[in-house]
Amino acid sequence: MVPAKAFGVRVSQYMVGFGPTLWSRTRGETEYGVKAIPLGGYVRMVGMLPPAPPGTRTGRGFFGRVVADAREASVEEIRPGEEHRAFYHLSTPKKLVVMLGGPVMNLVLAFVLTAAFFAIGITQATPTVASLSRCVPTATGEPCSPAEAPAPAADAGLEPGDRVVAYAGERVTTWQSLLDAIDDAGAAPAPVVVERAGQRVELTVTPVDATRAVVDADGEPLRDAGGQVQTVSGPFLGISPTVARQSLPLNEVPAEVGRMFTATAGAVVTFPAKVWQAAEQAFTDAPRSADGVQSIVGVGRTAVDVAGLDASVLDRVTVMLSLLAALNMALFVFNLIPLLPLDGGHVVNALYEGAKRTAARVRGVRPLPGPADVARTMPVAYVMFVVLLGSTVLLVAADVVDPVKIF
């Protein structure tokens, strides 16, 4: 709306939702309002479709009438003396700015929400020592006996509260980087540098290459389906991490948004198959895929699940931020599909129009070609509308009958 008004186009409506109007107010020449079906919204700009080129014959059949009616309705919106304010009179660059305004806002929101998520951070293990093992665990998970030798970390002099900053010459910034350094160094003696009471202390630790039981948060051994204790092998130090909230590097936001874009683009390419899969899973015994597509109903249910998580407020906020970022990325990518009535369809028409005029200008053709006859693509818009409506109905039904369970 903002660039359209800046370029002189008359914007008659700015509406949230579709269907019957629940509330509206007119400010200047624009009606702002809320409609009954909250599945999106629209900006109504006058003169989206140019009149038929001279000599154009009205097509026969249903789609011929559709094209003719669309042109007539577009022309009727233009007030006498305001023909220059029609959208179709804009230059190609201005049309692109207007039509990309909505998708670009979704992209900006995806960046902002992801940055907020990174700034708040997530609760994760840190390289600060929370506790030390008294001995090297056994493969059966039995508790330590007083006669057993102490675990390597305790034997080397590490203490709870120490923050490991380097191991075997490798800089340590996260718990995972510490685990990687321990695995790389193996069971050989390794220098370890810790921060203790504001001072750096250098120690030497010799890990033990051992097979030990995998335990849960309460220290109880985990067992497989057959009842056998699960084990893990490798160098053992004997330290447990402190769990705390840590911000994520903001310089990694573009890479994360790029990963979201790639994943979303892949989902859009396979969208028809995903919709069919969701419908098939919802109405058969097959479980819904956690990475399947959802309707606005499914997204709403996921948001409710996030709000009800047994987690801290900040943890729930960060999950909600990531969910909203992904939703905005989905809207950005989906709206760029080069078919009407999506924004991408108008972008393609503007580029086609610009290419025709550029080619004519290079060849010295005068006068330059007029606006692209967008009305001829209205049958495609109708087919797309039916496809989108059908997909929406299927996904809403699937999300009511058998919703995706992420958590």
* Structural class designation: alpha+beta
Assembly of the depicted chains? single chain
Question: What is the helix content?
Answer: 40-55%
Number of helical segments with 4 or more residues = 12
Tell me the series of helices and strands, N- to C-terminal.
HEEHHHEHEEHEEEEEHHHHHH
The major beta sheet can be summarized as: 4 strands, antiparallel
Proportion in β-strands = 15-25%
Q: Strands across the major sheet, in which order?
A: 5-4-6-7
Low-confidence stretches: none
How many distinct folded domains?
2
**Average pLDDT, to the nearest integer?**
87
Number of distinct beta strands = 10
What is the general shape? elongated
The rounded distance between the terminal residues' Cα atoms is: 38 Å
Radius of gyration: 31 Å
Cofactor: Zn(2+)
Domain Peptidase M50: 3-359
Keywords: Hydrolase, Membrane, Metalloprotease, Protease, Transmembrane, Transmembrane helix, Zinc
GO molecular function: metalloendopeptidase activity
